[in-house]
Write a sequence for this structure.
């Protein structure tokens, strides 16, 4: 039997350790589909961890280019727990927002891990008119190294389940502004950016985004859409993510662990001076 409460589920499992099997209770990260609809149009379906759904929807609509500003989102009608449409969000958009019924960018299903896999391309993002993020300061490398421990210590649901990604927005001095968790990397990012959008905080110039997983293509494009100049991850970026970051002027940091990180793009925004190995041209 699985008992469910919001974003965590409790279930019975068999644990084997040192030759002994024991029946114990274990926590699972919840995963459910969420569909977003505006009138007759399905805007998207994603698998997510319930919680912060308003932020998730707002962030998704903004980072995918369906809306371009807070004022485009007139209302969100969230379902109640007992509603037959408990995984359906009704969205009211400003009449100026035009939806193309045959647009693949508007009608796709996203798994919790893949984000917008296969949908986006750099050419499509060029047509969206995403602009180079601006920042008026240099980020301190010592400050960057202090952020992953803050991320881990603030992941309340991950501590219990071990199964969630996190995305956190930090201020220029390394102050944590918001952290959101989800079973999907892109959902966690959308929740954090949705928080900023609903609060009238965009664009997030002079801020940075730290994610617990890898820095993939979809995470890079969402970061740029929010005007965030620096994206850091504790793991590796993909080749397409690096290409997009370099083309659109995002500072991309990977392998941010301990006192080490790798800058893949936008080195000019970090206060470092790289030495050139002897013999290098």
């Amino acid at each position: 039997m699985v008992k469910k409460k919001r974003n965590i589920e409790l279930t019975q499992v068999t644990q084997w350790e040192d030759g002994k099997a024991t029946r114990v209770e274990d926590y699972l990260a919840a995963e459910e589909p969420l569909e977003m609809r505006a009138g007759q149009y399905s805007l998207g379906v994603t698998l997510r961890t319930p919680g912060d759904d308003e932020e998730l929807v707002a962030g998704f609509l903004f980072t995918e280019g369906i809306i371009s500003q807070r004022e485009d989102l007139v209302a969100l009608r969230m379902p109640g727990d007992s509603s037959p449409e408990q995984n359906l969000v009704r969205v009211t958009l400003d009449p100026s927002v035009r939806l193309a019924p045959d647009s693949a960018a508007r009608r796709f299903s996203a798994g919790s891990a893949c984000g917008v896999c296969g949908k986006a391309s750099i050419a499509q993002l060029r047509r969206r008119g995403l602009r180079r993020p601006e920042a008026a300061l240099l980020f301190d490398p010592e400050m960057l190294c202090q952020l992953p421990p803050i991320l881990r210590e603030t992941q309340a649901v991950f501590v219990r389940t071990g199964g969630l990604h996190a995305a956190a927005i930090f201020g220029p001095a390394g102050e944590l502004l918001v952290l959101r968790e989800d079973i999907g990397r892109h959902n966690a990012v959308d929740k954090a950016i949705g928080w900023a959008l609903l609060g009238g905080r965009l664009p997030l110039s002079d801020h940075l985004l730290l994610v617990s997983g890898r820095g993939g293509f979809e995470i890079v494009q969402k970061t740029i859409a929010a005007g965030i100049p620096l994206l850091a991850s504790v793991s590796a970026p993909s080749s397409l993510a690096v290409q997009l970051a370099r083309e659109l002027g995002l500072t991309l940091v990977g392998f941010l662990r301990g006192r080490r990180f790798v800058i893949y793009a936008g080195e000019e925004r970090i206060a470092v001076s790289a030495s050139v190995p002897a013999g290098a041209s």
